[in-house]
Structure formats: C-alpha cells, structure tokens
Amino acid sequence: MSRRVVITGIGVLAPGGVGVKSFWSLLSEGRTATRRISFFDPSPYRSQVAAEIDFDPELHGLRPQEVRRMDRATQLVMVAAREALSESGLAFSDVDPRRCGVTIGSAVGCTMGLEQEYRVVSDDGRKWLVDAGYVVPHLYSHFVPSSVAAEVARAVGVQGPVTVVSTGCTSGLDSVGYAVELIREGTTDIMIAGATDAPISPITVACFDSIKATTPRNDDPEHASRPFDATRNGFVLGEGSAVFVLEELSHARRRRARLLAEIGGFASRCNAYHMTGLRPDGREMAEAIRVALDEARVDRLEVDYINAHGSGTKQNDRHETAAFKRSLGEHAYRTPVSSIKSMVGHSLGAIGSIEIAASVLAMEHNVVPPTANLHNPDPECDLDYVPLTAREHRTDVVLTVGSGFGGFQSAMVLVRPERRAA
To answer: Residue 55, CB half-sphere, CA atoms under 13 Å: how many?
Structure first.
C-alpha cells in the first residue's frame, strides 16, 4: 500500500483579501472581488475587468530587496508559503532538508516583470533594437519560471526536489498531484506545494481578447463572472496564489500536526483534440475523475461536493456538466456543485490550488460556497450549482477538477482525515 498524504498547512492570497480567513469570508458570504482593471488603463481592450488583489508586499513581510528582485507572482507565492508553514507548525530546523521538496504550478510565470522590463528597454515599444543597459539585474529570474520555486526553496532551506509544473490552467492541481506522488513513492516526507500567477497585464489581456475567451461585460464588473448562467460570455481574469504543506501521514501524526484533509486520489488526462476546444461529451475529464476516485478508494456515490472548474465560458461549463454526469451517473444530480471563479475570477495556473484550498475549507466548515451571479441557469447545465448563497452541507469527500488549454483535464479527491482513520 502506498504512503498516505495529508495537508497540514494552507496559505492563500486571492482577490478580496490576503490570508485564509479573508478568503473563506469572501467565499462563504458569496461576495465578488471582480472590478475594472486598475493596474493599467484597460480602455483599449475588449475585456476591461479582472479580479485583482489589494496587496502590499512590504506590509506582508517582504523586504524591499526581495520586492525589487521578485516578480509579483513570486511575491504572492512567498507570502502564501509563509502562511502555510506558520499554520502547519512545522519547524524545518527539526527535519532533514533532503527529505523535503517544493513544487509550484504556474501557467504564465513572471509575466508582469517581463512585460514591464520590455517596455523599459524598448522605450515602450518604440525601439526595435532594445537597450539592455536599462534592464534590471534580476531579469533572468523573471525569464526562467524555475526561479519561482527556487525562491521558496531557498527561503525555507529545502534541499530535495524543487520543480515548477506548467500545464496551463490545471497547473495548480497538477503541481499538488506531483508533490503527492513524490511523497507516496518515498522520495520525500514533506512537500511545499501550490501555485501562483499574476497575469493581469496588457499582453495577457490582449491574448485572451484575440480569442474572445474573456468577458466583454465591462459595464458591470461585479457581476461579470457568471459560470453556468445562460447569459455568461467568457471568464474574468484573476490573480493569486495558494500553497500547502503536505506530509506523509505517519510523519504528521508523530509531531501531532493538525490534519486538514487527506489527498486520496489524483489523475490527469489530455484530450489530444484541440488547443482550446473541448469535446462536448466530457470524456477525458470523466476518465480523470474515475481514476482519481479509484485511487482514493472512494465510490462515486460518496462524493459530497464538486468544486467545479466553472470558468464561465459556454463550452467549458457544458463540457464539465457532461463529465460529471458521465462519471457520477445519477448521483451527479444529487451532488452540490459550485464555481468560486464567480467570486475570485480565473487566475490561470494558480486557480487549481486556490480551488483545493476552497475545497478543504468547505470540508472544515461543512459549508459549500456558492456560484455567485447565477440567476438564469443554462438549461444544458442542469445540475445543482448552489446559486448565489452558501449552503450548510456535510462534506466528507470533495472532488475538485480543472480544465486547461491544450486539452488538459485533472481531478483530485480530498477526504476528511478521520473518515479514513483505519
């Protein structure tokens, strides 16, 4: 039998607040954090709304030199990692650093830093031959995504495997899934795992504008993200980070750690079909769900809540609905489903980890967060999407899923630890 893996610490930075308490307050109250973009003038763009974090890096413990060196995505993950480590109560001075690792997911890496430096060296795009004399000394760190995980490892003193996982919008699920496998196979006992992305920049907005993936509902930013609603017309870009301390179960028990959840199963599939398109039958996501449930030794009838990808695009929401029906059968109609992207937007590679955090908190509080802005359900999306208001609901088993450009489909099963105490 493979070794079991539990979550003993969580750190979250998400739109609407910094820290786990602020994050859960937003979700449980059904508030939205979407607004008109303030990082730059969005008026030239088709989609002008986003979910931004009000974040002061120095106020949250980063030194001025760290702020100068790190891209915003790295700043976010560093603060999230500190919260996760603090909550876990784990003292790294008491563990073998060679038995500890880091895996961080990111879809677009240090986008904001790279774009800003290009604007400087090219004189805001006026010069074809750029002047490298104007570049910051740490530009290489922005260019190489591995620097994000390396910063976390260096801060903690980790000497085991350190990796960045970049699989688009499933990166935050896949990075945690990879960390779980490293613990299960015996390579490590402890992993700091999660994801980060800070993509709210002109280049990212322009890219999604070109394929019309983001919403043009600029006159009502607060209600622009509306997954599963018949009037939805694209997702709202977001930013954020979530980090977890993962431990082998017996290791966590020996130090009497608080067990927040067990990661029972994980699986990922690719549809090998289209870079941005999805098959309407949801076959690949359904297969990932089936394998994750089998790995967790959980029957589909035991799933209490589904934390959906729920991006708010027409094809994704219908694809996902079909996948839930295909994998859970009639039980899909009895299972609450919700999308927190309705409140915190879509932070690309980070959102999978942020949704894991939401799933663990739903389990802890026995409350299912709502799908905000869901007033007119799409008839083709006919499951229980918990519209508008959070719901008290006993939650021992949570299924959380992700879907990403490139055809990536991932699923993870989280289980209340005492449920599997034997």
So the answer is: 30
- Of the candidates 169, 251, 319, 381, the residue annotated as catalytic is 169
Angle, alpha carbons 42-48-49 (nearest 5°)? 125
Query: Does residue 125 register a pLDDT over 90?
Result: no
* Per-position DSSP letters for 10-27, written without gaps between them: EEEEETTEESHHHHHHHH
> Which of 381, 341, 57, 421 lies closest to 231, judged by CA?
381
Say if residues 330 and 421 touch (Cβ distance below 8 Å): no
Q: pLDDT of 232-265, one tens digit each?
A: 999 999 999 999 999 999 999 999 999 999 999 9
Catalytic residue among 142, 251, 309, 319: 309
Whether the CB-CB separation of 80 and 354 falls below 8 Å is answered with no
270 is catalytic: no
Amino acid at 205: V
According to the model, what pLDDT value does residue 421 have?
53
Query: CA-to-CA distance for 112 and 124, rounded, in angstroms?
Result: 14
Domains delineated in the chain: 5-254 (3.40.47.10), 264-420 (3.40.47.10)
Single out the catalytic residue among 142, 251, 319, 346.
346
- Active-site residue, 274 included: no
Structure tokens at 397: 């088993």
Query: What pairing do the DSSP bridges indicate for beta strands 49-51 and 100-105?
Result: unpaired
Which amino acid is located at 251 in the chain?
Answer: H
For residue 5, which of 148, 101, 92, 82 has the smallest C-alpha distance? Answer: 101
Q: Radius of gyration of the chain from Cα atoms?
A: 20
